[in-house]
Task: structure prediction
Amino acid sequence: MEEGEGRPGAVFATFEDGRRVRARVLFADPREDLALLRLAAPAPAEGYATARLGSSEELAVGQEVFAIGNPFGLGHTVSRGIVSAVDRTRVLRNPALPVLQLDAAINVGNSGGPLFNLDGELVGIVTARVSDTPLGKAEGIAFALPIDHVRAFLRAVSEDGIQRSGMIGLQGSALVRPPPEVRALGYRTGILVEGVYRGYPAHAAGLRRGDVIVALRGKRLDALAGSRRPEAVLDALQQSVRALFPGETLAVTVVRDGAPMNFALEVAAARPAEQAKLDAEALFGILLADGTDVPTIAGPGPRAMAHRRFARRIRRLRGARIVDVMGRKVERLEDLAEVCTEIRDLLERSGGQLRVAVTVESRGGRRVRWVIPVLGS
Result:
């Protein structure tokens, strides 16, 4: 793909046979490093060849793959390697997104190129490489988005043009010191399942109240969180779920009656009201109350707990309603969800630094305008 000369935003696709076709960007997500484009209709005699999609879930460490790209503008180039790791996290802008690690030669110009298995099936899209690090020069470390995740991205965008966060439908609290039967298995942290919502993925998979979640995708919670702080442990679960699109699977390990058990949860799409609650916690660190369609502050969420003064102020505003965000009137949770979508776009353009004006109304009718930092996405 290339930018059109003289026209900012104009995009063209150049094919191996020399054809150059105008394209239109339908949707782009910088955190995913993915975009959906529509090419101009081809001539009847030409058409567009398509790749056969494989399954990244079936990839195994050590399996051979090959990447195609245009490194340094040299032209169509193929490089071969193996899958070095699967479900690698903390490497992209979206740190919770699990990606494939490979050792194929990847250079500038390979990003966005396809990754194939030996059956010629598309199993990933090359997205990044590691070159220089504080520890020295790196070689043979590159990453690709799994095709199953890309497929879910396309499905999520094509259905309504709006990305919905994933959700699994459970309520839990962090355990800094888990019960003895959990510690006996070597786990230092966990999340106690306090409630499972009927009809949602956690319930459908068989999770129960009283289970202790100790690992996600085979990785211990304390390792994913990078800390034993309660807010970090909860955030690890929330970010792991949010990194997936509806229809993707999250592997969860729990301890029940002293024994580990594995479950596969098919992530569901958050409804607009649920999306607003997820966004309020992710962006502002504010937990919203259940049982009401009005965005009502219930207290500070895990992200706010790392900022003590901020968390204290949220506590003082318990019971207050959010009535305005960035000058937009907010009456229902659905209104807040729409504004939060805009805030995410602004956050990307601002390079991750953003403050927004929020007006809340106390139970007594007193309104307070509050300029707060956006904590994340």
